[in-house]
Amino acid sequence: MRVLRVFVLVALVLTITATPAAAADIRQGNDVIIGPTETVEDDLYAFAATIAINGTVHGDVVAAGNNVSVDGSVTGDLIAAANFITIRGQVGGSVRAAGATVFIDGKVGGDVFGAGNEITVSGKGQVGRDAVLAGNTVTLGGQIGRNVQAGSRAVTLDGHVGGNVTAQVQSLSLTSGAAIDGSLSYTSPTEASVPSGAVVRGTTTRSTPPPGPVQPVQGPAAIAIDWLRGLVGLLVLGLFLVFFFPSFSRRSGEALVRSPFMTLAIGALVLIGLPILAVVIFVLGTIVGGWWLGLVALAFYFAAIAVSVPVAALGLGASIMRITGRPSHVVLALLVGLIVLLLIGLVPILGPLVIFLAVLFGLGATAMAVAGGRQPEPAAA
After folding, report:
1. Is residue 274 classed as helix, strand or coil in its secondary structure?
2. Of 71, 172, 199, 251, which sits most exposed with the smallest number of CB within 10 A?
3. CA 164 from chain center: how many Å?
């Protein structure tokens, strides 16, 4: 089963992260706007605080930022990681989205694979194939062409589902406008709310969760969603570093690529030595003054650990892109590196070891980047 899950995730991520060819359109900045009259004749890779697709993209779109919206047309797939993701236009392929809020008010020709706090398909929303969703609240109106799989605290069905519905929820509600052409199967501690106007043409089956803490579903979809959540969290942290501390991000990535063994050694030294040094400074500071310097050192230690994996991913992604001869882009390197690290992290025994090494590399690169920032940089030619 573990091998099956890994293969499922590998297939998913290969679809998500197909490395762009040299002709791919890569854009970044505070805002990336595709105007209503603009047409992009290639895959679009957009990294910005606000990304708005108001025109037409003849290809796939990979977008990461704070606010991603599609009011125009995307002929291929949409892969988005953002705080707010809104689709009011048309996506010809599938949508893979992770964010705090995912709102679909337009038409999606393929599948929707979504993870977030609040996921909504409005009454005008259309999904051509399956919907696989995980969130705090899931509301499905409009049209779902085939099957629905949902894991959520609360799920509300208010539209038409062409296939089966499978859900693991705390509460499930169908409105009088809900219609399910297939069967309804759900796991919940309470009975679903099914008013007289709701239609379930197949069988309805309820299972009760086992007593005690609820165990997470261990199917491939649940594993993929958990993995995607972890990716989004680390990606957001990495994007924060890239956009707000670009010099630090560049220096840390260069340190990893240029001196990996030195970086690893410094990382091990920081991991073991810095907390000891912080305690010593704190104790001495209580005697001679300056005890707060120990707290500052300790705060830096925890901050460095927090950013260590994204920093290591920057170096790993840059190395992969250099080896494959692809165009180097710091945000794309971050994304590729995180995906590779988190995929390896799924492998028993090897995965935790690789993540630990990534923390060491990240700590060393962070220390070298901070130290390098104190020195004047060479003037540009």
Report:
1. helix
2. 199
3. 27
